UniProtKB/TrEMBL annotation:
Signal sequence residues: 1-22
CDD domains for the chain: SGNH_plant_lipase_like
Protein species of origin: Arabis nemorensis
GO annotation, biological process: lipid metabolic process
GO molecular function, one term: lipase activity
Lineage: superkingdom: Eukaryota
Name of protein: GDSL esterase/lipase
Length: 351
């Protein structure tokens, strides 16, 4: 109950900060990762993994398909609003990413990228290492605009959010007949942990002091995973995939504790999106949903990216009560629930 009141206060504070004259709670928001947070960086790339056409974005402002993999807002869009920002961090590869727009942050994420650069390369997405390079370039632009001291304050005060890993498993590891025969999920997770650990240390080296990282979702409950990995007709979450996700998340937690102890002044929060998403899938009605298995787009079994398009047959007319918008991605309604969870868990990053 107390927690609920605290959230309400924060949400209200956020709204006042946003719509009044107040300042956002942090100077900037820096986003890196995959399609869960990509707001349009893949649009002008030669890749099949895009979402800048209808029905994507049909519930977004002006029904605009911006490249977000949802019918409306992503969880980080709500997060930006709650923190009091009046605009979303610009996609770094878009035309708006110039001048003073950059001062409140930027989004470097790219759908189909992973911790492992090899995952991104399979789909010609922007690798995590390249995202980091782009962030460095971003930093020098900001430094040129406001001077080194102010720039360093912005980088140290900004929330840096990393959300990736699902593509490493679903779009690389599980479907690679060689990799998943010679490397166990446990070993593969360890490999990703090494990358994660180096990435956080690099980000810290660039002056980041507030970092959030999301866990893997319940991979086995994503409609496309159910379609790909269970026998026809079995409509339950794939236990094996969920176990792998839980085991990965435990390692992520452990590695993050290690990094927090090692890097002075670093606030590093692991955002658990596994539990709230699983909760929506298992108890849809209590959470305001009636459809938690089938996605809204197309047949709801598999379609994502170019397969989810204006001619997909069967797309639902109203995604409000669907947990999933497409085969891999939550609806705006589910994203709103996730964002509330992020807000509660993220308090250490704004205090
Ligand atoms: C749709 O989004 C694109 C890119 O984000 C933007 O350039 C365009 O102005 C938007 N259109 C409308 C109608 O809002
Ligand atoms: C950003 O670039 C666009 C053209 O690409 C230009 O119209 C706009 O004025 C620029 N904005 C700033 C703040 O420099
Ligand atoms: C569906 O899969 C679950 C575990 O993944 C298993 O327990 C259950 O027996 C299966 N049901 C059918 C009808 O095959
Ligand atoms: C991470 O560890 C903390 C405490 O050690 C625990 O409260 C939390 O539930 C763990 N989160 C995950 C995702 O395992
Ligand atoms: C996580 O850390 C705890 C305590 O330090 C340890 O017991 C556990 O084995 C670790 N788990 C993994 C998966 O590394
Ligand atoms: C979708 O349904 C919700 C209630 O279930 C309603 O509030 C909303 O207006 C509907 N949206 C559209 C676009 O019809």
């Amino acid at each position: 109950m107390k927690m609920l009141m605290l959230i309400n206060c924060l949400v209200i504070a956020g709204f006042y900060a946003g719509f009044g004259t107040g300042q956002p709670l942090v100077p900037a928001l820096i986003i890196m990762g995959d399609s869960v947070v990509d707001t349009g960086n893949n649009n002008r790339r030669t890749t099949l993994v895009k979402a800048n056409f209808p029905p994507y974005g049909r519930d977004f402002f002006a029904h605009n398909a911006t490249g977000r993999f949802s019918n409306g807002k992503l969880a980080i869009d709500f997060t930006a609003e709650y923190l009091g920002f009046t605009s979303y961090p610009v996609p770094y590869l878009s035309q708006q990413a110039n001048g003073t727009h950059l001062l409140t942050g930027a989004n470097f994420a790219s759908a189909a990228s992973g911790f492992d650069d090899a995952t991104a390369l399979l789909y010609n997405a922007i690798t995590l290492n390249q995202q980091l390079k782009n962030y460095k370039e971003y930093q020098s632009k900001v430094t040129n605009m406001v001077g080194r001291d102010r720039a360093n304050e912005i980088f140290a005060g900004a929330i840096h959010l990393l959300s990736t890993g699902s593509s490493d498993f679903l779009q690389s590891y599980y479907i690679n007949p060689i990799l998943n025969r010679i490397v166990t999920p446990d070993r593969y997770s360890d490999r990703l942990m090494n990358i994660y650990s180096k990435f956080i240390q690099n980000l810290y080296g660039l002056g980041a002091r507030k970092i959030g990282v999301t866990t893997l979702p319940p991979l086995g409950c994503l409609p496309a995973a159910i379609t790909m990995f269970t026998e026809a007709g079995n409509n339950t979450c794939v236990e094996r995939l969920n176990r792998d996700a839980v085991s990965f998340n435990t390692k992520l937690n452990n590695t993050s504790i290690y990094l927090t102890n090692k890097l002075p002044g670093l606030k590093l929060v692991v955002f658990d999106i596994y539990t709230p998403l699983l909760n929506m899938v298992m108890n849809p009605v209590e959470n305001g949903f009636f459809e938690a298995r089938r996605a809204c787009c197309g047949t709801g079994t598999m379609e994502t990216s170019f397969l989810c398009n204006a001619r997909s047959v069967g797309t639902c007319s109203n995604a409000t009560n669907y947990v999933f918008w497409d085969g891999f991605h939550p609806s705006e309604a589910a994203n709103r629930v996730l964002a509330r969870n992020l807000l509660v868990q993220g308090i250490p990053l704004i205090s």
